[in-house]
Amino acid sequence: MYLKSLVLKGFKSFADRSALTLEPGITAVVGPNGSGKSNISDAVLWVLGERNAKNLRGQAMEDVIFAGSSARKASGLAEVDLVLDNSDGTLPVDFDEVAITRRMYRNGESEYLINGTVARRMDVLDILHDSGLGTGTHSIISQGSLDSILQSKPEDRRALIEEAAGVLKHKQRKAKSERK
Ligand code: ATP
Ligand code: MG
């Protein structure tokens, strides 16, 4: 599985439709300070279901919508489309490509689509559950969280290594079944 494309419309500094096409392997995004590099990783987090505005470096969720500039008015809608190549079947669905879309309007209304069909946030999380992607995982490490990882207690660091090794999900399942 790999990230094949990302399209941003009215998301943070990306007022116009901006499409990024990626290849398997490593992609580096370079640019001056404030040019929108971190906004791209915010877009990935957001489309995969993030609902804490602070994790997207904002105060409120509406902060993801383009706020306007001296040259153009604010957008009424933020939209991000993310396409994952699933030809190796990593994700438990019968599609070679999985397109996830999230939209949000200024009135707070929000929706998700999976391959063009309206879906719930839960459906998105379910698809990603065993993939290591998605909210709460460390597939995206922000500038700030790197410091906190380096300064974390050994127990917390252990949890991080267990997540990377794929052990954490089994531990969580075990804990859940023991509670029942
Ligand atoms: P650095 O190299 O300093 O990390 P960066 O390339 O990661 O910079 P970002 O943090 O992605 O930069 O982008 C910051 C820019 O995005 C700022 O100019 C900010 O005003 C703009 N921005 C953030 N949210 C919005 C929004 N809702 N509407 C318009 N612009 C926004
Ligand atoms: Mg940055």
From TrEMBL:
<feature type="binding site">
    <location>
        <begin position="32"/>
        <end position="39"/>
    </location>
    <ligand>
        <name>ATP</name>
    </ligand>
</feature>
<comment type="function">
    <text>Required for chromosome condensation and partitioning.</text>
</comment>
<comment type="similarity">
    <text>Belongs to the SMC family.</text>
</comment>
<comment type="subunit">
    <text>Homodimer.</text>
</comment>
<protein>
    <recommendedName>
        <fullName>Chromosome partition protein Smc</fullName>
    </recommendedName>
</protein>
